[in-house]
Design a protein that fits this description.
seven-stranded mixed beta sheet; 2 domains; about 525 residues
Length: about 525
């Protein structure tokens, strides 16, 4: 790694999302001179908290909204000042055909959960099958998540640790729909499980690509238990803690520093005419964006495509449910599934594949402020106001990209509201808070909005197709970049974002792995 150019830094990091901040913190703590370049005026990427409505003291997690895959070891390594809370209610799912009844999965009350399954499905054994299904997955979660802070394990090692060859083959070699049908007997229970395979992923239950299996795996391994946690203060607190850790370690973090081009020999140019050289470049941006910065005429990255609609709301109060047996504070405290039976999810996929936003739109709702009221100002808390986040499935970027942005956003939003209202005893519109200008506190964010605001290619929250978090048994793993799953086609450029092999979700794993590979290279 020698040349005629002076070295401005050991490492230049492109992008300032949470993964890039993790990489910067690790590298700076190891004594590496690291410069991070972020095009926006703030850091954090999609892991931010913002106040979207005029005169309203509500700090929303506007994009990403839960934490599952952020390892405790990473938090200890970086000394993160971050508090996470666990939700007692896992989920509530009204029966779409009979929304006056539904399934409430309460992790603190198995008997009530069993009764809920029995009343909603008429099947006295489905609650036991549901619990057994996730108990069977527990060794997969423990083995896989237990490996994520080390170099990529080989597939055979994880398979041996799981100790269930039949499950392993069902999960990694055959479409997820087969496993769900053999494990669960009801359409609604299968749908509850299947949604974990469809967050931001456009696929049928039986898609032969197994992309739904990959997404499902990442959703059930978090923390070794599959639990999803709530960051106190909102997602912005995650990025703030990481920024603080990186700055305390001495990292040079620069905002309003949009990168114009990157060269394989370690040179980075910004749109403002600044030039940086480094021994290594770490890319926290999507692989497709990196290809563009490199000027590659034949892109190496797989084409990304997001598949979701995000709706943020602030309510005067929680709405009443058609299911009067369930308190709305319980229903909305976990993941509230709407029109997400397995058959509905597959029909919604078919509709979107044929060019239409699904109606009813499969969606899931979460109320952050029930678990963490600190995101609301004192007056809002006293008034009974609550936030709602709706995540709509099967809205692939191809639909948004082919339409007028404003018209598509409004049409998709109306589909989402109709879907939500189908299980409520009153229209959600009647409960919306209004801002200082008298406008209702609701916004929809499409994949195009994500692409334009966050430079997230095609609105893909994973930066491209997910990969198994292990190496195949015949992978040579003969370089630091290969061992950590962060290699690109250029030796001096590594991934450190969601596009890394173990990237995706708010985990910090892409940043950790990029930093570990970089340190091995720099010390060699």
């Amino acid at each position: 790694m020698t040349g005629s150019k002076s070295v401005d830094a050991d490492v230049v990091i492109i992008g300032g999302g949470h993964n890039a901040l993790v990489a910067a913190a690790y590298l700076a703590r190891a004594g590496t001179r690291v410069i991070l370049l972020e095009r926006l005026p703030h850091l954090g990427g999609a892991a931010v908290s913002e106040r979207p409505w005029t005169g309203v003291d509500a700090k929303l997690s506007r994009y990403s909204y839960l934490v599952s895959l952020l390892p405790e070891q990473l938090r200890r390594d970086l000394g993160l000042r971050l508090e996470l809370k666990r939700r007692r209610i896992s989920s509530y799912t009204p029966d779409p055909a009979h929304p006056e009844r539904g399934i409430l999965v309460d992790t603190g009350d198995p008997a009530a959960t069993a009764q809920s399954f029995r009343e909603a499905t008429g099947d006295a054994g489905e609650a036991s099958r549901f619990a057994a299904f996730y108990e069977r997955l527990a060794p997969v979660a423990r083995a896989t998540f237990g490996s994520v802070m080390a170099p990529l394990p080989k597939e055979a090692d994880i398979r041996t640790a799981v100790g269930d060859d039949e499950l392993w083959e069902a999960l990694t070699q055959r479409p997820l729909g087969e496993l769900l049908r053999s494990s669960l007997h009801t359409d609604i229970a299968r749908g509850i499980a299947l949604t974990d395979g469809l967050i931001g992923t456009f696929a049928r239950a039986d898609d032969s690509s197994l992309c739904q299996n990959l997404c499902f795996l990442y959703h059930v391994i978090g923390g070794g238990t599959g639990d999803w946690d709530v960051p106190v203060g909102g997602m912005g607190q995650v990025s703030a803690a990481l920024e603080d850790a990186a700055r305390r370690a001495g990292a040079d973090l620069r905002t309003n520093a949009a990168v114009a081009s990157v060269s394989p020999d370690g040179e980075v140019h910004t749109v403002d005419g600044e030039r940086f050289t480094a021994r290594l470049i770490l890319s926290g941006v999507a692989p497709a964006v990196l290809d563009t910065l490199l000027g590659d005429e034949s892109p190496t990255a797989a084409a990304p495509e997001g598949a979701q609609l995000k709706v943020n709301m602030l309510l005067k109060r929680l709405p009443r449910l058609l299911d009067t047996r369930v308190d709305p504070t319980a229903a909305f405290a976990g993941t509230f599934h709407i029109n997400e039976t397995m058959s509905q999810l597959d029909r919604a996929y078919d509709a979107a594949a044929n060019g239409a936003v699904p109606d009813p739109l499969p969606a899931e709702i979460y109320c952050h402020s029930l678990t963490d009221p600190t995101i609301l100002g004192p007056e809002l808390r006293a008034s009974g106001a609550q936030t709602l986040t709706l995540f709509g499935l099967h809205v692939p970027h191809r639909l948004s990209a082919a339409a007028d942005g404003d018209a598509f956003r409004e049409s998709a939003l109306q589909n989402a509201l109709r879907s939500l209202n189908s299980v409520l005893a009153e229209p959600i519109e009647d409960t919306l808070f209004v801002d200082a200008n008298g406008a209702p506190c609701i916004e929809a964010r499409t994949t195009t909005d994500l692409e334009e605001s966050l430079a997230m290619s095609a609105g893909d929250i994973f930066h491209g197709p997910l990969s198994w978090p292990w190496a195949t048994d015949d992978d040579p793993l003969n370089s630091p970049a290969a061992r950590w799953g962060v290699a690109t086609s250029h030796d001096r450029i590594l991934r450190c974002g969601a596009g890394a092999q173990r990237g995706g979700a708010v985990s910090g794993l892409g940043g950790h792995d990029g930093a570990m590979a970089a340190l091995e290279i720099l010390r060699s």
